[in-house]
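Me: I keep going back and forth on a fold encoding question. No explanation is needed for now; the record alone will do.

Assistant:
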Amino acid sequence: MQSPKTVLIIEDERDISRIVNDYLRVQGFSTFITENARDGLQGVRNRQPDFIILDLTLPDADGIEVCRELRTLTSAPILILSARSSDTDKVLALGFGADDYMTKPFSLSELVARVQAHLRRMADPKLQATTQLLLRYGTLSIDKSARKVMAGQREIALSAKEFDLLYFLASNPNQVFTKTQLLDQVWGYSAYVEDNTITVYVRRLREKLERSGIKSAYITTVWGVGYKFDPDETE
């Protein structure tokens, strides 16, 4: 029998953490709670959870910085659960490695649906229109089995969804995808994610490629339509 997936809840509001914890357990997850950033980071180091739910307002640190640090420790999906609803907070959180963002008040059933969808995509992404496990374009290599992206001999650190998005585009070269198609193929539940999520992820991917010496033009904007991976953009 497969072990239940473990979800870490980093949330200092006990009423919220308790109800989320109880609801996830009823749905078959293993869970644990920390009430501050320090314990949350230590919990990731010690237990390597499969999924993380993170509040942005913590007593000992800003959640955006916690998200950034979490991403250096784990590739597990991170869902932000916060009362902060501004576009700036959403863009920053997604830019620093979060995979999803929900605002309070929230639906417990929707929260669980998002957790389940992310974990399904991690276990069986179904991103490939190809069976290739290793894609190479110039000095850029994308290893699906190891979930690693390399620029020559240097690894490019990507979040889980950044990797999935890059792999999906790169495994379908020269094919244009709309934002809705990318949300459906990579996230698996387009109804729950805003279109600007794709814009944020594409920008972050381009920045990370450029910082590693890879031309960001591999990911091309087709104005008024969407995005494609252009393999002719050699370094």
